[in-house]
Specification:
homotetramer, Rossmann fold, Dihydrodipicolinate Reductase, domain 2, 2 domains, 7-stranded parallel β-sheet, 14 strands
Chain lengths: ~350, ~350, ~350, ~350
C-alpha cells in the first residue's frame, strides 16, 4: 500500500461532517487521520461511540490541542459548528499552518458575518488570511481555506456559467432551494424530530439563510451588478441531498439555445460537475454518496425564464468531499484522489 | 340518524380519488353512496378488494351504466383518469343530470385540452355546459361541475387576492410546486416505484404540466393582462400533500405591508382557507387529512419579491373534498357538511 | 346539531395523545371538550400553538385544576406521561369522579409498576379503584378506567381467542412487535432524530418493555398457567402504527384448521376487530386513522407454529380511540359513537 | 495505478445487483468490468440510461454472448433473476469457465428448487458443479459459485455459532426477517408502488420464502437434526437493509453467559462480521453501504429464549459485495480487496 504521507487532524469529529470526513478519508490513498478532537468530549474510543466504525478506526477522541496538532499533523480540518473556528483557529493562522474550515466562520467579511450569523466575527486581520475556495473553480493556494456551504456550492455551480458571462438579469434571480435533514446537523430540536419531518415539507429561514450573503458576494465577483438574490430554503423528508431550482432571466447577449453549450464549455475540464443531456433534469438520488454536482437546464419561451436544477450531496460535495478536493489541490494531488464515488442506484 | 337523502353514484371508484370519495362520504350526514362503477372491473365486493373498507361498505362494483345511475342516483361523481368522462358523460349532460367531474376533461376549451392533454377533446357544445368551480369562490349552480385540479387549486388560492386586485406583475409569476406521490395515481411506472421515490426529489413536466392552462385561464379572469406563468412541478417522497412556493412581484397599487390584510379580507368569509399569522408559513402536514388550504406570506424588501406558500391535501381539497364541497353547494347544504376534518398532529 | 351533553376535560393536552383526543372528539356527537390542561404551560391559545387546530378549536390551556374540572366537566382524560396521574388523580378517585387514564400509572400492581416503570407507584388503595379496560372485551363500569397500552392492546387482541380457550403452549409465546415513532412521544432524544430513524430499523428495550407485565397479567386471567412471554419491540421508520408478529404453538385441544373459526367467533360481536380472510395478513396502513384492530393468521404444518399478525393505529386504538370507546361504554352510548373512521387508501 | 488484471463480464447489468456490481467494482484495484450484457436490451450506452454512471463508465450493453465472454473475460457474474442462469450458464460450466451466480438457480437440489421456485431446475449434472459459498466461511475453490441469498446470509451468520456447536433446540428456531424494498428488485408491481410501501409494513410469503430451504440445508450441514425453521419475511419502508430477529432456545451444552464468547470466537478471524458489545443490538443503518454483517445477542432468563439480531445491506453483503468477496477468494486476493466500505452516519 502507498505510504499515507499526509497526516490529518479533525476538530469536531463527532458531528455529521466530521464523521463523513472519517468515512471518506479511510479510502484516501495519500492521507491518514492521525488525531480526532472534540470540543466537549475527551478520550472516547470512537468506534465504541459509533459502532459503524468498528473494525475500521482505532482512534480515541482528544480534547482540542493546537500544539499537538501542529506537531503531529500536516493539516487540520475544522468540522465544527459556526462560532468555534473563529476562536480556535487563530493559532494556526498565525503559524501559517494549513487549515480547511468547513464552518461558515471565515466565509464572510466581519460585518456580514455579524448580521447573518448573529455572532461576533473573527478579526479582520484573521479573516483576510482566509480564502473562500469553491473547489471546482480552484484558483488559489491559500493556507486557510474557507470551504463553501452546501447551499452556496449548489447555487453557485448552477449560476456560474451565466454570471461569469454577466448575462443574468440581476433583478430576477430566484432560488427555491431544498435540503435533506442532515444539513441541519445533529442538534435535537422539534424541527428534527422524526414525527415532524416525515410526511412533511416546510420552508424555513425564508430570505434569512446565512448562505445568502455567501452566494451573493461570489456572484458579484463574477457579475458585479448583482445585488440581491431571492433565496428560500425548504426541508425535504430525506437524510441527504440538496436540490436547487433556480429561475432566472438572461439578457440578450446570449440566446436560449446557446445555454447548453455555455454550461458544457464552462465545466468541460472539471471532474465533478456533470451537465445533463438537453432538457433532462437531474434528481437528488443520482448524486448521493458522490462528490458530483449534476446540473440540468430547461428554457420556457413563453415566460422567458430559464429553469436550472442542480443537485449535490450536502455531506460530500457540500461539506467533507469538497474539503478533501480542496486538500488535494493544496497538496498538489490529482483533485479526485480519494473521491471516486458512485451513487447507489437502489 | 338523519335520512341520507342524497343518493350518489361514483364512476372510477377503485382509483385513489374514488376511494377517497368513499371514505369521506361515509360520514356525510346527508348523502349516501348507492352504486359504484368501474370502467374495467365488474361485480367485485369492494371490501374484499380493499380490506380497509371491511365492516364499513357492503357494495359491489358494477359496470358503468348511465341509465341505472340516472334512475337510482341524484348525482354522479366521475373519479376517472383524463379521457374517460369526455366520452361517458355526454348522456348525463344531455339529460341535465348532475355531474361532478374530478378529471381534467371539462376544465379547458377544446384547443387547450388537445394541446396539453394530447387527447381528443369533448365537443364544444358539451364543454359549454360545464362550469369550472373553485369551491371556495363558489358563484354558480351549473349542473356539470368541473372540479379543479390539485395544483390549480393550491396555486389559484395562493394568488387570488392579488390577481383579483390586479396587482400582480404579469411578467414574474413564478410557481415552484411540489406534490406527494398520490397525485400521480395508481399506475405502475418506474417513477412510482418505491426505490426511485424514496430518499429522492425530482422535477417533472417542467413547463409542461396540464394544470398550467387551467391556472392561467382563471388568473386571466381575475387579472386579464396575465398571459403566462412560470410553473414547475416536483415530486416529494411522501404520499399526500401539495406545497406551492410562489414568487411574485406586485405593482405599486398595493404596499407590502397591506398584503396580509388583503389576504385576510379575501378569505374572511371562507371556511376552508386559513391565513397564517404574520411571517409564519404553513407546512404540508398541518392540512393532511383535511379540506383546508393554508397560506402564508413573507416579503423580501431587498428583492421586492413576495413569497407565498400554500398547502393542501391533494386527495381532499385537491380532489374528493372539494368535490363534496361543490356538491354541498349544489344541493344547498352548508358547504362544510361532512368535511369537518382535522389533521393528525403525530 | 345534537346537544353535546358530555363535558370533557383533558389533562396533558399538548402531548400526542392529548392532541389526538382533541382531534377525535371534535366529531363526537355527544361529547365536547370544555377545558384543556397542561402540567407545565398555562394560558396558551391552543390553535396559535398548533396551527392545525385553527378554525376548529377556540380553547386556551389552563394549569391543572381538579376543583375546576370536577365543577365543570363530567369526565377527565389523563393523556399524561407515566408518573403524572398517580399523583394528580387521587382527588378524582376519592371523589369518585370519572377518569380515563391513558398512561400506565394504574395498569399494574404496585410492585410490578415499580419494577418496570422504575418509579414510585400509587398506593394500593388507589390502585384498587382502577379497572384495566380492554374496550373490545368491555365488562365493567368502573369509575377509574386504566386505558390499555398500545402494544398491549395489539398483543392481547391477537392472543385472546387462544388464551381464553387455554390452548396456548405457555413456553413458546413469542412476540416480535414493531411500532411507528409516535409511540415514543414528543420528547427530543437522539432516537427520535429524523436522521437516526429514517432508512433505519432498530430493536429497543428487548425483554424490558413496560407493556410486558401488562400483557402477561391479562393473559394469565384468561389462561392461568402462562408465566412469561418472549416480547421484543422495534422501531419502524413511520409515524404511526403497530404491527405484532406473534409465533405460538397450540395444544391438542384445538386443531389448526379450527383456528380461523375460533377467531371469527370470538370477535363476531365486536365492531372494531376485523379478522382477515383465510391466509391473508393485514398491513399497517389499512388501520391507520381508524379504531380497528385487524388480525390475520397462518399456520405452518412443518414447524407447528401459528403466526398471528395484528395491526392497529397506536394513537387511536392504542390510545385516544380506545379511550373514547371506553367513555362511550361508561356513559351507555353505542360504543362506536364518534369512531366511524376509515383508513386513507393513498 | 495497479494493473487491473482480472477481466469481468456481467450478465443482467441493468438490475439492481448488476448496477451494484458496477458501482463496487469501479474501485476494485485488481479487477475491471470489460463487458456488460443484458438479456433483453442491446447496445445502449449505460451512462445514458443511468445518469448516475456519467463520467464513470463508458460501456455499452451487449446481448448475451458466451463465446465473447469466454474469449475476453476471466470470470462472469450472473446478476439475473431466477430462471435465467440455469439455462444460460451451462456453456460456462462445461468449459469450466469461472462463474459467480447471484441468483438462486444453483443453490438448491433440483427437487427443492422446483418446489420453492416453481420453475424447472437445471440438471443434476450441472447442479453438482456448483458450490454454495457463504463467503465468511470460505472453504472451497469451485469454479461455479452459487452466491448466497440476502436473507440466507443474514440468518446463517446469525445462527452459525450455535448450529456449528449443535446447541440449537431444533423445534424452536423462529426467524422474523425484514427487508428493504430493493430486495424485491425493479419489477413494477402494486407491492412496489411508493404509496403502498411508504408509511406501511407488511408480511409477505410467510412460511413460503424461497430462502427457507437454502437456510435449512446449510443449518443441517452444521447441526444435522435440524429439519425446519419458522421463517417469515416482512417489507420495511426503506430502500436497503435486512434485519433478522431470531428467537432460539439452546440446549444445556452451553450456558447463556457463554454465548457472547462463542460468537466472538467463531468470528474472531473474519473481517466482515462484527459482534456488538454485550447486550447491544445493531441497527440497519450501521451496515448500509458496507459488506459487514453486525450481530447482537440478548438472553431472557424468564423465557429462556435467546434473541439474536443480525443486519446487513442486502445489495452488498446480500448480493454484489459477497460476490466480490467470493471472487477475491477464487483469485487468491485478500478477501476485503475493493470492499473497504464504511456506512454513512447521516
Amino acid at each position: 500500500m502507498v505510504d499515507k504521507n499526509i497526516k490529518i487532524s479533525i476538530v469536531g469529529v463527532t458531528g455529521y461532517s466530521g464523521l463523513e470526513l472519517l468515512r471518506l478519508l479511510y479510502n484516501h490513498p495519500n492521507a491518514e487521520v492521525i488525531s480526532i478532537h472534540n470540543t466537549q468530549q475527551t478520550h472516547t474510543d470512537i468506534s465504541e461511540q459509533f459502532p459503524h466504525l468498528k473494525k475500521m478506526y482505532n482512534l480515541t477522541t482528544m480534547p482540542f490541542d493546537s500544539v499537538y496538532i501542529m506537531q503531529h499533523a500536516d493539516i487540520v480540518f475544522f468540522a465544527t459548528s459556526s462560532g468555534v473556528s473563529k476562536d480556535l483557529a487563530s493559532e494556526f493562522i498565525e503559524a501559517k499552518f494549513p487549515v480547511i474550515d468547513l464552518s461558515g466562520d471565515f466565509r464572510l467579511p466581519a460585518s456580514l458575518y455579524k448580521k447573518w450569523y448573529k455572532k461576533e466575527p473573527a478579526s479582520d486581520q484573521l479573516l483576510q488570511q482566509a480564502h473562500y475556495s469553491l473547489a471546482d473553480f480552484y484558483n488559489n493556494n491559500a493556507t486557510y481555506i474557507a470551504n463553501p456551504g452546501c447551499y452556496a456550492t449548489a447555487t453557485l455551480l448552477a449560476l456560474a456559467p451565466l454570471a461569469q458571462h454577466q448575462v443574468l438579469d440581476k433583478d430576477n434571480i430566484i432560488i427555491d432551494a431544498k435540503s435533506g435533514l442532515s444539513g441541519a446537523g445533529k442538534s435535537l430540536t422539534s424541527t428534527s424530530h422524526f414525527v415532524n419531518v416525515s410526511d412533511n415539507f416546510s420552508m424555513y429561514k425564508a430570505n434569512q439563510h446565512q448562505h445568502i450573503p455567501e452566494i451573493t458576494q461570489q456572484l458579484q465577483k463574477w457579475q458585479p451588478d448583482i445585488e440581491h438574490i431571492q433565496f428560500t430554503t425548504s426541508l425535504l423528508p430525506i437524510n441527504r441531498g440538496i436540490f436547487i431550482s433556480a429561475y432566472v432571466k438572461i439578457n440578450d447577449a446570449v440566446q436560449a439555445n446557446q445555454i447548453d453549450k455555455l454550461y458544457k464549455k464552462t465545466y468541460a475540464n472539471t471532474q465533478f460537475v456533470r451537465i445533463m443531456s438537453q432538457n433532462q433534469l437531474p434528481n437528488i438520488k443520482q448524486v448521493i454518496g458522490t462528490n458530483f454536482t449534476d446540473i440540468g437546464i430547461t428554457y420556457n419561451p413563453d415566460t422567458r425564464y430559464l429553469t436550472i436544477v442542480s443537485v449535490l450531496d450536502n455531506m460530500i460535495k457540500g461539506a467533507a468531499g469538497q474539503a478533501i478536493q480542496n486538500m488535494n489541490h493544496f497538496f498538489g494531488l490529482e483533485e479526485s484522489t480519494g473521491l471516486h464515488l458512485l451513487a447507489q442506484y437502489a
